[in-house]
Design goal:
Layout: E1 9-11, H1 22-33, E2 41-43, H2 47-73
Antiparallel strand pairs: 1-2
Amino acid sequence: MHDLEVGNLVSSSSSDGSSLNFMDYFYFSLVNFTTLGRGDLMPNGHLRFMTAMEAFHGFLLITVSGTFVLQIMSGKKPLSN
């Protein structure tokens, strides 16, 4: 993340973000996408905006897929007029 200059993630347990590895970034993305928002990793810089957009898109995708599944379970044809 440091090479792209979009910001970085900081662990709440330490102020040094250099000890984060790929799985930490993946974990943060998964927690953010599902809008769980645990708060153990915090974004800085422009990464804050990018994570907000990821949470918004995750919320939309989960809502749409849930609605789709509920329509199928209720016996309706999804996406029909």
